[in-house]
Design goal:
The chain has six helices and twelve strands. Strands 2-4-5-12-9-8-7 form a seven-stranded antiparallel sheet, with helices on both faces. The longest helix has 18 residues. It has 234 residues and is of the alpha+beta class.
């Protein structure tokens, strides 16, 4: 089954004005380059799993595809989805106010509590490999910058009117973004590639994580992101 279109993919489409492209299976050389960053990414996303969290969607090597054009940079992307295990300690803790307001027939409070539970019961991790775009959201001046070892650019999105579920997303960008060009019309940075299109080199990765903020904040700081950077062309 092909991966679903992600929030990050939607944001990237707003920064690129390209025509639709056909896709194909990567060559052996391309797959080797891609897996140098995908393997350490997956090792880090696995750290989100514990007795409260389970993966319901993840990387499928058999579904990986790349643009079928020598005029395009080698790139791919996928979505990892983690959901809270039903009946787990955290599930029961976050569900308690929902059940209480339901029992008390407090509909307004119930709607607020249920909306909060829905957001906190899932974690989405969008991975864009070599897409070359960092989307800042609708309020680029209000992003919260983060200092995370091994990550070139890291911040929390303040607001995104085009893709509201990106509000509060943790954005991690890997690669040499110091020469990236800022696109004020779309509030994003466009990566400056060293290698020409059609070559098997991966120069950047952008990861967006949104959902249960407490869990994201905890795990993002524990991961060894330097291994992702080490997998890029230097």
């Amino acid at each position: 089954m092909k991966p679903k279109i992600s929030a990050l993919a939607i944001a990237l489409l707003l920064c690129f004005s390209a025509t639709a492209q056909s896709m194909r299976t990567p060559t052996a050389a391309e797959k080797t380059a891609l897996m140098k960053v995908i393997n350490p990414i997956n090792q880090n996303t696995n750290q989100f799993l514990d007795n409260n969290w389970e993966e319901t969607e993840g990387f499928d090597e058999t579904a990986m595809d790349v643009p079928n054009s020598t005029r395009s940079q080698l790139r791919t992307g996928y979505l990892v989805t983690l959901k809270m295990k039903e009946g787990s300690p955290l599930y029961k803790k976050l569900m308690e106010p929902v059940l209480r307001f339901m029992k008390e027939n407090k509909n307004d409070s119930l709607q607020v509590a249920y909306a909060a539970w829905q957001k906190q019961s899932v974690i989405h991790i969008d991975i864009a490999v070599n897409d070359g775009v960092v989307a800042l959201g609708s309020l680029p001046d209000k992003i919260q910058k983060l200092n995370i070892p091994g990550v070139a650019k890291a911040f929390i999105v303040a607001e995104d009117n085009n893709t509201p579920r990106r509000n509060g997303a943790f954005v991690l960008a890997f690669g040499h973004w110091e020469n990236a060009k800022y696109n004020p019309g779309n509030d994003c940075y466009n990566f400056k590639y060293v290698h020409p299109p059609g070559t098997p080199f991966i120069e950047n990765v952008v990861i967006e994580i949104y959902g249960n903020t407490e869990r994201i904040n905890e795990i993002v700081k524990q991961c060894d992101w330097s291994k992702v950077t080490a997998g890029l062309y230097q």
